[in-house]
Amino acid sequence: MRIEYWCGHCKHLIGQVNRPEWTLEQAEWFCGLHTLSPVEHSEWVAYDKNNGVLSVQTVCDYCQSAIERNPELLVEGKLLQ
After folding, report:
1. Within 13 Å of residue 3, how many CA atoms lie on the same side as its CB?
2. What is the distance, to the nearest Å, from the Cα of residue 8 to the centroid of all Cα atoms in its chain?
3. Matching InterPro entries, A to Z (predicted)?
4. pLDDT tens across 41-79, in order?
5. Number of structural domains found in the chain
C-alpha cells in the first residue's frame, strides 16, 4: 500500500509512505484516518484500488503560511490557483 499526501490547495505531492504489507484498514488505522468523520473522510481521502494507492489531502507548509498571512484567500475560494 502506498499512501500519498497531497496539498488540497496547490495540488503538490507533500510526501508518501510505502508499506506494501499494509491492508487498506491497517493504513487507515496507522495514519489516523479512522478518526475522521464520514464527511471528512469522503472529502479528504481517496483510494485507488487498481493501483493500491491511498491519497490523503492535507495542507502544505507554503499554503498554510499563505493562509495565516492572508486568511481572506480562503473566503474568496482561490488560494494559489
Report:
1. 20
2. 7
3. Fin
4. 999 999 999 999 999 999 999 999 988 998 877 776 555
5. 1
How far is C-alpha 41 from the geometric centre of its chain's CA atoms? 10
What is the span of the domain harbouring residue 63? 2-76
Is 81 a member of any domain? no
pTM here is 0.84
Residue 55 domain-assigned (yes or no): yes
**Three-class DSSP category at 53:** strand
Q: What angle do CA 67, 62, 79 make, to 5 degrees?
A: 45
How far apart, in whole angstroms, are the C-alpha atoms of residue 45 and residue 70? 26
The arithmetic mean of pLDDT across residues 13-38, rounded, is: 96
81 HSE (CA, 13 A, CB side): 8
